[in-house]
Amino acid sequence: MTIYKFKYGKTELQAAIDEGAIIDNLIPKNSVPIPDIQKEVLKVIENPIGAPPLKEIITSGERVVIIVSDITRLWIKTNKFLKYIVNYLNSIGVSDDDVNILIALGSHRPSSEVEKESIVGTEVYNRIKVYDHDCFSPEELSYLGNSSFNTPIYINKKIIEADRVILTGGIVFHLFAGFGGGAKSIVPGVAGLETIQYNHRLTFNEGHGTGLNLDACSNKVYGNPMREDITDICRKINPDFLINSVLDTDGNFLKFVAGDFEKAWLEGCEVIRNIYGISIENKADIIIASAGGYPKDINLYQTIKTMDNCLYGGKDNSVIILMSECSEGLGAAEFLQWFKYKTLEEMERALKKNFTVPGYAAYKAAYTGVYRKLILISSLPKEEVQQLGFIPVNSLEDALELAYQLSPVDPKITLMPYGGNTLPILK
Question: Are 211 and 204 in contact (CB under 8 A)?
Fold first, then answer.
C-alpha cells in the first residue's frame, strides 16, 4: 500500500492505495519552468507568431483594450505577467489612461473589487481601469451580424470602440472547445448571452434525441463546430494581438505564445498536447481524480471539465472517485433546476428549446452520472449531490471502500491527481 495525496480546495486529501492495482498515474510530462517571466514575455512580444511585433501594430494615442480571464481562471496567473504588457505599451508611447482592461466573464458572475485586484495584480489595478464584461446588458453590446454557423454576434462595445485589442489567457484542454485560450477570450469571454447560447448549442447534434455532437470535444480543433464558430467570430472582430500562457500543475510558467490570435494559439495547443495528453494502454475500472484544488474546484460548474477528462480513461459503467471541494457551491443558480428532467432525452429536448450554458453543464454532469458511477467528495449538501445522480461521501477512505464494492474483483485503477489538466488518450 502506498500513500497518495490529492489536491482538494486549498488543502489535500490522502489515502493508502494498493500500488499493484494501479495501471496508470496520469502525471504531466516533465517540463522546465521559465526562469525569467519578464524577459520571456518581452521576447514573445518582439518575436510573435504570424503577426508583426506589437510596437509595429500600436502607436501612441491609440485606445487599447486588454482582455483578461476571470476569477475562475486565477490559475492562469495573469497578475504575474500583465504588468509587463502594460509597461511595454508605455514604452511605445501608450499611456495608462489610454488602456482599459476587460474581464472576460462570459456568463459567469461579476467580480468583486478584491477579485479584480487578484486577477490583474495590485500594480496594474492601481494604474489601469478594470471593467467586468456583462453578457446580460444589451446596452453594453454591439451587433455585428451572424457567423457562418448562423450564430448572432453580440460583442462588448469596448472591444468595438477600441483602436487595438489584445487577448490574454491560458491554454488547457477544453471539454467541448478542444482547448481553452485563444479566441475564447472573445466567445464566450466578451460576447452577449445570445451569442454564447447559440455557440454552445453546437455541442449537440440537430434534431430530437440525437445527443451530443462528439466532434465538439477535447483535443479537437478542426471539424469541431463549436471551436470553428468561435474562430469565425473572432476573425470578424480581428483582435490585434494575443498573448497566451501554458503553466504546469504547480502554477509555474512553461511557455508563452504571442502574435496572431489563431496561429500563436495553435502552437500553444501543441505544447499542451505534448505535456498533458497522456497515452494509456487500457481503460480503468476505477478512476481516482482531483479537479486540481482551488480555484479549479471552486464550484461544480468548473469541475465538469475534470468529469469529462475522466470519461476518456474509464470503462463504460466504471467508477469515478472525484475530489472537488466546490467552496462556492454548484456555480450557477439554475444548475440544479435542470435535474427536474429525469432522463437525458428530456433534458436534451429542454436544452434545445431553451439553451443555457449552465444547462449544458448540468447535462454533462447528468451524462456522467448515467454512464459512470460517480462518487463525489465535496462540501456540497448530500441531498444536492444525490439529486445530480452522484454518490456523496465524506472521505477518500469511504470512497475507496465503496468503489471496490461497486467494481469487479481485482479492479484496475487509474489515478488522475491533475484531472482538470490531463487527458487520457487511448493508444
Answer: yes
Separation of alpha carbons 232 and 181, rounded Å? 15
For the stretch 127-146, pLDDT in tens is 999 999 999 999 999 999 99
Alpha helices by DSSP H, 103-150: 113-120, 122-127
Amino acid 357: pLDDT: 80
User: In this structure, are residues 84 and 37 in contact, taking their beta carbons and an 8 Å threshold?
Assistant: yes
Cell (9 digits) for 72: 475562475
Q: For 322-350, how does the pLDDT look when each residue is reduced to its tens digit (9 = 90+)?
A: 999 999 999 888 899 999 998 999 999 99
Q: Would you kindly state where each structural domain of the chain is located, as residue ranges?
A: 2-28+281-426, 37-274
- What are the E-state strand segments in 54-108? 64-69, 99-104
Ranges of residues in the chain whose predicted pLDDT is under 50: none
Taking Cα atoms as reference points, which of 15, 38, 53, 36 lies closest to residue 85?
38
Q: How far is CA 302 from CA 36, 117, 294, 411, 415, in A?
A: 31, 21, 10, 29, 20
DSSP label of 329: T
Q: What stretch of H or E contains 317?
A: strand 314-323
Determine the Cα–Cα distance for residues 107 and 76; give it in Å rounded to an integer: 19
Taking alpha carbons only, the member of 175, 180, 150 closest to residue 309 is: 175
Helix, strand or coil for residue 294? coil
Q: Which fold has domain 37-274?
A: Rossmann fold (3.40.50)
Q: CA geometry: angle at 140 spanning 137 and 145, to 5°?
A: 100
**Bridge pairing between strands 391-393 and 129-132:** unpaired
Q: How far is CA 217 from CA 39, 184, 259, 330, 364, in A?
A: 35, 15, 26, 22, 12
Strand partners, 279: 425
pLDDT given for residue 311 in this prediction: 96
Domain 2-28+281-426 in this protein, CATH class: alpha beta
Judge if pTM exceeds 0.85: yes
Contact 417, 290 (CB under 8 A): yes
Under 8 Å between Cβ of 94 and 58: yes
Q: Read off the C-alpha cell for 104.
A: 472576460
Beta 129-132 vs 141-146: how paired, if at all? unpaired
Alpha-carbon distance of 266 to 404, in angstroms, equals: 41
